[in-house]
Write a structure and sequence with these properties.
By secondary structure, this protein is of the alpha+beta class. Helix content is 34%, strand content 22%. It contains 9 helices and 12 strands. The strands form 2 sheets. Strands 1, 2, 3, 4, 5, 6, 7 and 12 form an 8-stranded mixed sheet that branches. The protein has a 4-stranded antiparallel sheet with strand order 9-10-8-11. Strand 3 and strand 4 form a beta hairpin. Helix 1 (82-98) runs parallel beside helix 2 (120-135) and helix 2 (120-135) crosses helix 3 (142-152). The chain is globular and about 65 Å long. The two termini are 24 Å apart. Residues 3-11 have low confidence and may be disordered. The structure holds (3R)-3-hydroxy-3-methyl-5-(phosphonooxy)pentanoic acid.
């Protein structure tokens, strides 16, 4: 019961949470049309929660009524207008669950550069959900918190758990009428939530992240999900994902990188195929992206280096290998002209409430 720990005296209504980001092995790309606002995905996804890429967030609810509006600061920058809206909408969800109207101050810090291609929305919305709920004294288990986090950012549902995690699609094939039956409870509806497959100790995998560009992306993943259905390749990808999920579950259970790796690359390329062929077309790759992909294939095929790639909604490349190969992979990728910086993380725990606060 993450939300039940260390809420402090109720009058304070302040809590701080640290949550890890995650890297998906089978991707979440596309939301079900009838449920866009709830982030119900087209397919299940599987990820590894990251130990060394995390967000720490303090939420302080003002029950005195003095605060007129929510304030949000990320990495020392106060967000104004539309950039704060997504956070405020998430605070609205927590207010609705608790039945209160308090405004909040939110301060959040990432330990990685936000434009690095590590999903800050996953760790950010997981930390916001856990801290915000704890500070309101809401006693929600990790499954319910996963359902709430999902509505802020789909991939955040997976960051509610440590280690290796699967997010179940849940609501995919149901109609609007069916949804209506549970409308009143949809904020806490736990049909589309993540669950832990294995803990962080199960397999010492590494995500070696090759940063080829730090520019902000033109189209956010939250807008991109709404375009997936316009791609002629989307149905082909979602038709294959069931079999790929099975292989990935087995590969993780058996700690078999040779089984995991080809599917990892296949789904990353399939997702980018969908992105590139949607209307409008999303082309997240930069020349450096392709340089890294070609290098990974050459190292593996010509020299036997056990490493595979995956890519999220951006140009940076995540190189997945076992701990023993990580130093060699870091050295090789860091020497590529296109790569500006390399960050490495292993599997991490689920969110933790902290005693110290940022405000
Ligand atoms: O949670 P979002 O809306 O930022 O979507 C994340 C999408 C990908 O990172 C591209 C894939 C994934 O499953 O994490």
């Amino acid at each position: 019961m993450i939300g039940g720990r260390a809420t402090g005296p109720l009058s304070e209504r302040k809590a701080t949470c640290r949550a890890g980001s995650n890297i998906a092995f089978i991707k979440y790309w596309g939301v079900a049309g009838d449920f866009e606002d709830l982030n119900i995905p087209l397919n299940n996804s599987i990820s590894m929660t990251l130990a060394d890429a995390h967000t720490t967030t303090t939420v302080a609810w003002d029950d005195s009524g003095c605060l007129q509006e929510d304030t949000v600061a990320i990495d020392g920058v106060e967000l104004v207008g539309p950039s704060a809206e997504r956070t405020v909408a998430h605070l609205d969800r927590l207010r609705a669950i608790a039945g209160v109207s308090y405004r909040a101050r939110v301060v959040s810090n990432n330990n990685f550069p936000m434009a690095s291609g590590i999903a800050s929305s996953a760790s950010g919305f997981a930390a916001l959900t856990v801290a915000g709920a704890a500070a309101l004294g809401l006693h929600l288990d990790a499954t319910r918190l996963s359902a709430v986090a999902r509505q802020g950012s789909g991939s955040a549902s997976r960051s509610l758990f440590g280690g290796f995690v699967e997010w179940e699609r849940g609501w995919g094939g149901e109609s609007e009428a069916k949804r209506g039956e549970s409308e009143s409870n949809s904020l806490l509806d736990s049909r589309s939530v993540a669950r832990q497959l294995h803990s962080e100790d199960h397999w010492a995998l590494r995500d070696v992240i090759a940063i080829v560009s730090t520019g902000a992306k033109r189209v956010s993943s939250s807008s991109g999900h709404r375009l997936a259905a316009t791609s002629p390749l989307n149905a082909a990808r979602t038709g294959c994902v069931g079999a790929w999920l099975e292989t990935v579950r087995r590969a993780i259970a058996e700690r078999d990188l040779c089984l995991l790796g080809p599917i990892l690359e296949l789904d990353a390329l399939a997702m980018h195929g969908v992105m590139m062929t949607s209307t409008p077309s999303l082309l997240y790759w930069q020349p450096g992206t392709l340089e890294v992909l070609q290098a990974v294939r050459t190292w593996r095929e010509d020299e036997g280096v056990p490493v595979y790639f995956t890519i999220d909604a951006g140009p940076n490349v995540h190189l997945i290998c076992e701990a023993e190969a990580a130093a060699e992979v870091e050295r090789r990728v860091g020497a590529l002209p296109a790569v500006g910086r390399v960050l490495t993380s292993g599997p991490g725990t689920g969110p933790e409430l902290l005693d110290g606060h940022l405000i």
